[in-house]
Amino acid sequence: MSDERAGAWMTDGRTTGTARAFELLEPLVQAATVRVHAPPGGYDNPGSHRTGPTWGSGFFIAPGWVLTCAHVVGEGGAAVRLTGREVGITFHSGRPRPGGPGASGAVTGTVTGRVECVLPERLEERRPGRHALWDLPDLALVRVLAPVSHTCVWLTDRSRPRFDEVAYFGCTEDLGTPEITGRTTRLRGTAGNGAAIRLADDDEIDPGMSGGPVVDLARGEVVGVVKARRQTGGGGLAVSVVQLRTLPMAARGQVGLYRRIMQAHDLYHYDQHLSDLDNRRTWTDVHGELPPQERDPYGGRGRLTPGERTTLCGLLAELPPPSSSEAVRALVEAVRGEEPDPQPPAPLSWRDGLGLLHDPPGGTGEAAAMLRYAADVSVADYREPPTPGADEELWDWVRATAERLWRPLRRELGERHERGLAERERRRRASAGRTAGGPARRAGGLPPGASVLLEVWAHGWEHLYDWRVSVLAGPAHPGRLTPVDAGVRATVADLPERLRAPLAEAFRRCDTHMAAALLEVAVAPELFGLAVEDWVVAGGVPLGVQRPVVLRHPGGPDCHVPGARPGGPDAHAPDAHAPDAHPADHEGSRAAARWARVQAGPLQDERADCAGGRPRAPSAAWLSGLPDNTVPVHCRAADQEPTLESLHAVRDAGYGVAVTRRPPPDPGVSCAPFHRGLREELADAGRAEVLPLRFQTLRGRAYGADPDAYWAAGAGLVWEDPARPLPDVEPLHGDL
Question: Is 570 exposed, middle or buried (0-12, 13-18, 19+ CB in 10 A)?
């Protein structure tokens, strides 16, 4: 790289620009970067304390936690399960002293680490061949199995990297012995829907550097993990560290691994910043010494100082994590005045919300935006009660810091804080069932928050399907849709794999610590037999066991017209004798009455497409005359007549709750056990509002090999909740 490119020109005998940034950051990064190899005395070299050849590199991101690439910990173990595998970690203890030689002056140690998880999880099931690229994000988290003294890098909070000068570090053997070295280059773009970052070909990436950190030299933060080099020439790929947010979600009521690690990361740097036990440089110190960015509109008072940013991240880490990703996004939207960047992965921690507030729109100062956000966090709802005084300490810091920026800002933030306190108290009274509007929602019903919407449309007359995954905001914002991902021309067999990553991202956005989000599957009735509840997205457990899954008729401008269905306007005309069958307003009021009645219960089941085991087609007049607390039941294939006709007729008659079933492969199996079991289930449930969660429980019992629940195999719940309207959006149209 030329001196001009590197910014390595001299002023008063000192380097400046990018070269100065590299000079400042190199000792810190080297001290946190490690060499990954076989465990000492392990299965690869039993009885020996030698470390053996280098597999790759890694770096400490929090006390006791090393981040590297999955293919690094998979070195030499194609048949070995990655999670739980032990590896060797050689590191430099202590932190570099000011003006010292960096990591080379520190004590070197070796410790055993255990792989806690790999991303994506499917690498445990299917790995590429030798010399082939591993699936993105190709990350592994290693837990060190002994307490050791080491330094940690500073991770970016930005969802997207800036395409500036960077440095990458890793283990090389240029001089015959392993050592941690760094080189500079530039980011050239992204790949893999933002999961990967392209590194320019200014220098060559040596094999042992895989798993090492990529550092943004302008901001002094780690943005990526070295993944691969080009086969010819220099440059290669790195994985965005933001992909850590795709770590497996925690079980209900537990704090996930991502949130635990990021909390430890922020508290580590906070403690280092506050400590006066030694005078060694910290990351916060170096951030304050980095050369100023050119043409920075938020320079000076417009941005938080490095010390203020470290303190804010530490105070946020002292609080319990947010209840859900959507809670973070809502606070960011309230500050920015617009919906935040929907680019995945979803923000999971309070710190991630700060990353969405860089360079806010409308000329608003970045520091002011972050203080408004922090003020809102201080009065937000947490997973559990905070440590006494933690939220007040955050607010006191916000108020004091506002004085430095602009004194009127302190008054604005004070008013914002008072409103937030009043609103939080109102929410607490509501959750305790003491709202002015009446009692709280009864136990056993669905959570009132956002849900995940999966839409699948037939692609013309081919056996191919287009799809879209979105977040449906729920009753708080009826009809509001935030797209996550979409695709075209997938076969039924392809759908589970094509939808695995988009659904996982949507669940991360919607799941809370108390409940897994509802999955709403909006498809034409002929696709009601789609076995979505049996798909496995994460954790090796079917979706229907992990969360409530319901079926919905698709949205769109023509989908809510009574009597409308494919095949022409008269393909399913209402019975001529049905009273007032035509007016849409009457149909809407009848549907609302049926919904309210069936939610309250008691429930009455009625076979819609079956009579004594024989198929039948119900008339519109018969359906209209049934009591409003009826749940129509279908036991035959949804894509076959008369069941397909019945599903349309049931919806036209205003039934928002119905039951379907994928019949067993053997056509000779009686449907009587299904109807008998469902009748008992509905009687025991008492009211419809608990059915989505009870169906989830049934699937869990069947998955756990409970013979008394086998009758529910293939059962689906149609759930047309008027509080969760589907938007009138035209479906995708793929290539012709």
Answer: exposed
Q: Which ranges in 406-526 belong to alpha helices (H)? A: 407-431, 495-510
Residue 61, pLDDT score: 97
For 514-573, the pLDDT digits (tens) are 889 999 999 999 999 999 999 999 888 999 999 999 999 997 434 443 333 433 333 333
Tokens of 154: 């500073």
pLDDT at 300: 57
For 400-430, the DSSP string reads: HHHHHH-HHHHHHHHHHHHHHHHHHHHHHHH
Tokens of 646: 């019945």
Q: Determine the pLDDT at residue 565.
A: 42
Residues for the chain: how many in total? 736
90 neighbors 108 (Cβ within 8 angstroms)? yes
Residues facing 713 on adjacent strands? none
Give dist(CA 142, CA 118) in Å, integer.
Answer: 9
CA end-to-end distance (rounded Å), the chain: 48
Which residues, in sequence order, are CB contacts of 290 under 8 Å at separation 6+? 20, 21, 24, 218, 219, 220
Q: How far is it, in rounded angstroms, from Cα 521 to Cα 451?
A: 11
**Using CA atoms, how far apart are residues 94 and 81, in angstroms rounded to an integer?**
33
| Apex 394 CA angle, 388 and 399, nearest 5 | 135
How far apart are the C-alpha atoms of 57 and 36, rounded to whole Å?
Answer: 5
Decide: pTM greater than 0.85.
no
Strand locations in 617-722 (E): 630-633, 657-661, 715-719
pLDDT of residue 232: 63
Residue whose token pair is 């059915």: 691
Residues 140/69, Cβ–Cβ less than 8 Å: yes
Mean pLDDT confidence for 381-405: 89
**Cα Dmax for the chain:** 97
Per-residue pLDDT at 712: 94
DSSP characters over 510-544: H-BSS-PPPEEEEE-GGGTT--GGG-B-STTSBHH
Residues 6+ apart with CB under 8 A from 477: none
